[in-house]
Specification:
This protein is α+β, with helices and mostly antiparallel strands. It contains 9 helices and 8 strands.
Length: about 450
Amino acid sequence: MKHPKTRVLISAILMLFSLSVSAQTQKMTLSQAVDYALSHSAQAQNANLDIKNSEQEVKSIVSTGLPQVNGSFNFTHNVQIASMQLPDFISPAVYGVLINEGLLPQDRFRAGMPQTVQFGAPSSLTGMVNLNQLVFDGTYFLGLKAAKQYVLLSEFLRDNTHASVSEQTQKAFFGALIAEQNVGLVDQSLINIRKTYEETLALQKAGFAEQLDVDRLKLSMTQLETQSLNLKLQRDVLMKILKVTIGMDVNAPLELEGDLANYLKVAPTATKADIQNRPEYQVLQQQLIMDSMNIKRYKVGYLPSLTLNASYQQNSFASEAEFKGLGKTWNPGTSYGFNLSIPIFDGLYKQAKLSQAKIQLEQDQNTFRQTANSLLFQAEQSKLNLQMQERTLATQKQSRDLALTIYETTLKKFNEGVATSFELVKADSDKTAAEIDYHNAIYQRLLAQIELDKSLGNLIKK
C-alpha cells in the first residue's frame, strides 16, 4: 500500500501535467486565424444563426398552406336541463277534424294551454376532428417566393458579416505580428549594443577606450531596454485585441506564425474595377427584389381567397341518470364546406400600403445607385493607395539596406578605433529605426492590400 504522501505527490504531478497540456500554446497563420474567427466570433455565429432563423421562417409560412387538423373533446353535464314552452298544436288539430266532419259545433272549440318541455340529456360527451385547408390565396403563394428570397438576403448579409470579420481579423493579426517583429528588432539591437558595451568596458578598464564611449553605449543600452519594454506591452495589448476579434479567450496562449513580408501579394493588373462580388452590393440588389415582391403582395391582396372546412364528430348521451349509458352508444356527424372571401372595399388601406411600397422601392433604388457609385470609387481609390504604398515600401527597403550598410561600416571602424562611440550609437539607432520603418511600410502595404480585397469582394471564399 502506497504512503499517503506518495499518493499526494503523484496526484500533484498528474495535475501539473494536465495543466501543461491544456495550456499548450496554439500556433496560427493568417488563414488559420481567419478560419478560427469565422467559426468562433460572435458576429459570424450570429450571422449563421440568422440564416437558420430565416429557413425556419420559410417553414412557418409553408405550414400555413398545409392542412390544419385539430382534435377536441367536450364533456357536458346538465345539472338542470333547460326548458322551453311550446304552443298547444295538438288540440287545434283534433278539434279541426271534428268540426270539419260536423261532429262538433265550431263555437265549442277551446284551445289548450302552452306546454313546458325539456330537450337534452343529463350528460353528453363529444369527440371532434376539424380540418382547415387553404385552397387558394394569392398572398400565400407570393409569400412562399418572398420567403425564399429572404433566405438569400440572409445569406448575403452573412457574407457581408464574414467579410467584415475577415477584415478585422487580418488587420488585428498584422498589427500583432508587426509588434512582435519590432520587439525582435529592438531586442537584437539591444544584444548588439550590450555586446559592444561589454567589449568597450573591458577596453576602458585596460586603458584602451575612453569613459565617454562607455557612458554613451550604456545610455543607448538603457534607452533600448525601455523601448523594448514598451514594445512588449504594446504587443501584449495587440495580441489580446486579436484574441477578442477572433473569439478566443484573452488568457489563452497564442503564437503567430509567418513573416510580414511573406503575406505580401502581387498587386492586380486589372484596370477596371468590378464590384459585383461586394456583399454590400449583393445585399442592395436583393433588397430591390424584396421591394418588388412587397408591391406584388398588396396587388394580389385584391384577389379572393378560398378555404375548405371539414369536421367529423361522435356524440354520446346519458340515457336516464347523470352518467347512465354515457359512452355506450355513439352518434356520428360529418360536414364540410367552402368559404370564399372576396375583398370589396377596405377603406383604401391596400392602396395606401401599395403607394408606400412603391415609394420604398424608389428610395432603395436611389440608395443602390449611390452605393454602387461609392463602391466603384472605393475600388479605384484602393488601387491607387496600393500603388502608393508599394512605392513607399520600395523606398523604405532602400533606406533600410543603406542604414544597415552604414552601421556595419561604422562598427568596423569603431572596432578599429577610427570611429567614435557616438557615431556607432547613431548608426545603430538609425539602423533600428530604418528596420522599424521598413516593417511599418510592409504593414501599411498589407493594409492597402486588405482594402483592395475588400473593395473587390475578395475577403471571403465563395
